[in-house]
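Supplementary Methods S3. Input chains for the assembly prediction are listed below.
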Amino acid sequence: MTPMFKIDHTNCADCPIRHRAVCAHCDANELEKLEGIKYYRSFEAGQTILWSGDQMNFVGSVVSGIASLTQTMEDGRTQMVGLLLPSDFVGRPGRESAPYDVQATTDLVMCCFRKKPFEEMMNETPHIAHRLLQMTLDELDAAREWMLVLGRKTAREKIASLLSIIARRDASISHEGNAGPIVFDLPLTREAMADYLGLTLETVSRQISALKRDGVITLEGKRHVTIPDMGRLMEEAGDDSDGGFLV
Amino acid sequence: MTPMFKIDHTNCADCPIRHRAVCAHCDANELEKLEGIKYYRSFEAGQTILWSGDQMNFVGSVVSGIASLTQTMEDGRTQMVGLLLPSDFVGRPGRESAPYDVQATTDLVMCCFRKKPFEEMMNETPHIAHRLLQMTLDELDAAREWMLVLGRKTAREKIASLLSIIARRDASISHEGNAGPIVFDLPLTREAMADYLGLTLETVSRQISALKRDGVITLEGKRHVTIPDMGRLMEEAGDDSDGGFLV
DNA sequence: GTTTCCACTTGATCTCTATCAAGGTTTATT
DNA sequence: AATAAACCTTGATAGAGATCAAGTGGAAAC
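Predicted structure tokens for the full assembly:
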């Protein structure tokens, strides 16, 4: 079965969304139906988009920036449970409320669809339901991969795993699958990284310094990262070299 | 929208599956179509049902016993990424292979459907696709809830969280939502619990002893557990008392 | 130009959990 | 009844990461 939506980071001319996600522009048949319910929203870094328990009256895709899903315990401990990069889908068709906080980790633009009409369209067009199921399965795979990181990896491996995810995601967007050094800007503070990895920000800082000292990464300033050897980084992450991350 | 399948632990006369899962007997319209492709399979405790990467040519529901999903690193570290209790759905419609090992943790009976015809039926009957999306979202919620456990909870809280999940699940099956002590048999070895919680089996044993010493649980033998006060257990787990676990 | 603030780094120490090791129970096997 | 094989418990010790604390650097605000 060939997917009705183009996927995997191909852009179309008039839409900024990379098409791992559902997008109106990708399917001429749906375009008119969606045009009316589509809108863009911008958020500032640090802004909370939704609190856990809030009514969620839209679904959408990240256009630019990074959003994060966070769970919080009563005493304030927090764990990031999802990182939404450009092209990722946000939303829970058929669900009333958000089960975790959704935050803009950086300045963020989202392409939103009002939920009701989106769901109606989903019910009428089976391939969209099918596509959503596939995306949800992707997210489930990514969440489970992350459970291994959280449960069994050392601090150093955790950092390497996170850098590896961001590097791979970034590389696949900027220049299609070539070798050579990978360069990118870290979009997360040390604290956000710690929240994602189940560490403290001090440990994150120490391990980044260690990876730098050992030549696994190069840093200019605090955010600009160069990965001279991706294979080496993935060894440090404890992954089989071919890698199975899906985020 | 009312679900076409009965859900939430109601049994019908001729089917052993509790209906959080897709099941032929729950929808007369689909019954005949499914009859031909449905079959039961039994597994012994410890048996591996699927290795990571194997072709997955069926989907199905757990009828009795417990199955687990496990990820393994090259050096042997393992993390359980899912626990499948009776009524849980196993399978990845539209996917070729399993991304993790599937094992029978106890003796296990599954109700299986051959994948191809199941997928065809899914494509023809939108409400089954819809139901599968909802179930996958449930699993995603559970996985993300578990990320908080793995990333931020102490060993004691982790044990309490696991007991809490099993107790709640068990209680909702055996006697509909009443108060009073909850009694059940632990279906997992200390080692399996450790693999699920990102701990060692020694730490699991020590924390269970501690919970017993502190009167949070009572143990007869090594597996028979009594929870005198479920609220107390949930406090120990660090949950807001109303609890959000979805497993 | 100075001050303030925020993100980050580094050091010292402590604590929780892993690790190593030994022994105990229960259940199955001979 | 004796033996073996899982499974579990408990103790001693070590180590990874948390916690507490001080200080650096850079950018924005005054």
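Residues 189-191, 201-202, 205-206, 209, 222 of chain A lie near DNA strand C (CB under 10 Å from a C1'). Chain A has two domains: 24-148, 153-236.
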